[in-house]
Amino acid sequence: MFSIALKNLFQDKGRAAISIGGVAFSVLLIFILQGLYWGWHEKINIYTNSVDTDLWVVQEGFKDTFHTASFLPKAYKDKLEKIADVKEVNSLLNFRVALTVKGKENYNILIGFDAKNGIGGPAKIIKGNKEPKKEEIIIDTVFAKKNNLELGDKIKVYDKDLKISGISSGGDVIMAQYSFLNLEQADDFSPQKDFVNFYLVKLEDQSKKDEVIKKIKDALPNVNVLDREKFGENNRKLILESFIPILWVLVIIGFIIGVAVIGLTIYTATIEKTREYGILKAIGATNLQLYFVVIIQALISAIFGYILGIVFSYLVSYLANYFEPIFVTNFREIDFVYVFAATILMSFFAAFIPIKKISAIDPAIVFKG
Amino acid sequence: MKSILKIKNLTKIYGKGHTAVRAVDNVNLEVGASEVVLIMGPSGSGKTTLLSCAGALLRPTFGSIKINNQEITKLSDGALSKIRLKNIGFVFQSFNLLQALTAQENIEVVFNLVGIKRKEAKEKSRKLLEKLGLGGRLNHMPPQLSGGEQQRVAIARALALDADLILADEPTGNLDSKTGHEVLALLCKIACDEKRSVLVVSHDQRLRDVADRVITFEDGKIKNEEKRTYEHHDLVCGMKVNRTEFVASYNGKTYCFCSSNCLNKFKISPEKYINKH
User: Model ipTM?
Assistant: First the structure.
């Protein structure tokens, strides 16, 4: 019966191609959406994960770097340094600005960090200098590609021209990119001169983390202290909460397209072969054996479509990322399993209507001319 | 003679009330082993309905059908499928081969349906097709075969599981005269040599000459039944024949043949056919 299924499916090569192509398209859609989700999920924290700190001291009520702001008095730095088991304290400025490139404004996140020790600076420098001096700026490679910028080019921040001294990677958070200035330069642009946004605290002894957090909270009013994991998790939560509902709607649409395409092609193949199914029934095939033929056809379409869909996904992902760097995907091993399971499920749903049709075929059809 | 098919008081009514049609009306029929029964009659007389009921494809309204002494009218659909698979072989006017499969694969399907493994099924179907003279056509697709060859593939499929009852619906309807004759000879040979019962529905008058009984059907009823007797046996094709114009003498004995084709074959090597019988 397997060979009947195989030959029925490939007898009309055009229809087989539509069936397999339809599944491949659906797999592509589901897989790319999954890949984008996990790509963004990972991407959103590349910078914050790269910051060499044990604790983030933030204003009380601060949740994540995208939704809430944090302002801490500059005077807190000395107080933090005096707390026992605190090894090092670094200030970090973080605010949104419009960078003007060739007369066009671009939304960006400006980071002011201590360029001498590099803490809070870019995740990775791919071109130029990692220590921006006065009137210099490090921009992200995605921002550079989007605006066709190179080392030495100038961009305007407020009314000041800054020279690009470095190009970094890992500073793309989809809706904006990070740019980096030294702390003094960033302070010039800061709207709150007596404040910084975060303090990055390194510990003498990791085992005393909880103890130090408590001491900081006791010593400084209106602050919260987050460890690296919690800080990253808050940012990731944003992606999870914002994108998952949209993602699921699109994944379900992809799934329905897959079911519809396989279902339609298997259904038309079944209708076209009604007489042959009647012949098989007449010579003694049971309904179950005929269902098997239909299910195998749907499964073959699904498996070939899945393989093709995965290949297309990699191709589309590569090309899309090449032309639009914001398009970052991360294909996890487990997603191959999930998408395969979804594809198999698609084929079972798709086989349902043709199966109903087959059970209604009258074997006496064989006597009709 | 052992009864293979026994039909008693068979009635099939289509529709209800004023529109009801009695396609088969209280028919009794028995077909024995090795017997070739021909049902003739005008279109719409109920021949095909009778064949469908006998073939476990259609449930009768009333009456009983026994195949090898097993009552089939009350069986479930699944059980009827098994009866069709193991006890009945079908031969159709339009051959009804599966178009996506080769000649050999069309036979293999039947073996696969009873669970015979692929390799064994392949071997059995090859032997069967070779026996029917289609050894050189194993891998041909149905459209690549002539009408006669397609019908022989269909006959091979009907014989694959040694069914006792062969039901043939206009088996020569789509064939030219010569090929039709070859198919008839083949069906007769099967009935004679392999002790199978053959129930044929046809308009083809040539079939009268090979049937043991000819039943005339009209308005769903048996109008006439004629038992045929034969004096001779065509040694080449196995058909039963009466004295014909195709006669040959050998070693003082006279032999009759169904056609000039068989006569000529006999003349080339008479001992081959005499020794065979």
Answer: 0.80
